[in-house]
Amino acid sequence: MNAKSVIGRERKKIILLEGQRLVTEAVQTSQPIQSIFFTNAEVLEEFPVKSLAESGVKFYKVKKEHLNLWSDTIAPQGIMGS
């Protein structure tokens, strides 16, 4: 998935969640998550990574610069989900 492609996300009906709070809320409420993008492993400490991976969630470690390009926020928190 091209995370920054708005048209691609709209066609596939994918929402890009930015930040710890939104990704955490999606996980806690059992919303369908396909991918989690993160800049360092520390941001994953609150997540049940093993059970999410077993349920099919893909984890991608990305460079901070890439996350900054995808983000609409001024200071991205280092995690996004889709």
Please tell me about this protein's structure.
With 82 residues, the protein is an alpha+beta fold. It has a single domain, classed as 60s Ribosomal Protein L30, Chain: A, CATH 3.30.1330. The protein is 35% helix and 16% strand. It contains 4 helices and 4 strands; from the N terminus they run H-E-H-E-H-E-H-E. Strands 1-4-2-3 form a 4-stranded mixed β-sheet, with helices on one face. The mean pLDDT is 82.
List keywords for this structure.
82 residues, four-stranded mixed β-sheet, alpha+beta, 4 helices
Indicate the topology.
Elements: H1 6-12, E1 17-18, H2 20-28, E2 35-38, H3 49-54, E3 58-61, H4 64-70, E4 79-81
Parallel strand pairs: 2-3
Antiparallel strand pairs: 1-4, 2-4
CATH class: Alpha Beta
The overall pLDDT average reads: 82
Arrangement of strands in the largest sheet: 1-4-2-3
Helix-residue proportion: 25-40%
Radius of gyration: 12 Å
- What is the global morphology? globular
β-strand percent reads 15-25%
Instruction: Please give the CATH architecture.
Output: 2-Layer Sandwich
Taking the sheet with the most strands, its summary is: 4 strands, mixed
* Class of secondary structure makeup: alpha+beta
The number of helical segments is: 4
Low-confidence stretches: none
CATH topology: 60s Ribosomal Protein L30, Chain: A
Fourth-level CATH superfamily: Ribosomal protein L30/S12
N/C terminus separation? 9 Å
